[in-house]
Amino acid sequence: MEINIVPLSQNLPLERGYVVNMVIKSFKGRKDVEVHLYRSAWDPEEEAAYDWENILGKTPEQMSLEEQDAIKVIMESFDRFERDELVRYLKTRYAQKISAINSAPLPFPIPQGLIPLHLMPEDENHGRIRLEKVPNYTLDFSVHGYYDLSDHPPILEDEQD
User: pLDDT per residue over 103-121, tens digit each?
Assistant: First the structure.
């Protein structure tokens, strides 16, 4: 399993701000499926405690609904401790099923137009993995993963051996 942790190139303006994805070798008839992991829930008090004007240049009240998506993108991200715990959990629990785990800090300022992963649609190609629903989940924060099967090649019959 490959583990790629991109180091900080600049200080983050808050503790949160690390994104993580994993590549599952074989999933739903597809190979090398990239799954974008995110915190699916957070304490509203944590969100309210951040100085968004300092972090994003505006208060939430000054932002359009689209601009407020940047807040959700940040709140879905992991802090360094959560990222490290998640990587350890994935390495231990899914070592045989995952080919790579990747993590990088979010770019600041947050690019406009990013859509929070919890708002992404689900259909026959797009879906979620709810890791905390799996038996013996050991993390103390909930993690979901969003995937798009149409981005990944199907497993051919002769590859399944």
Answer: 999 999 898 888 999 999 9
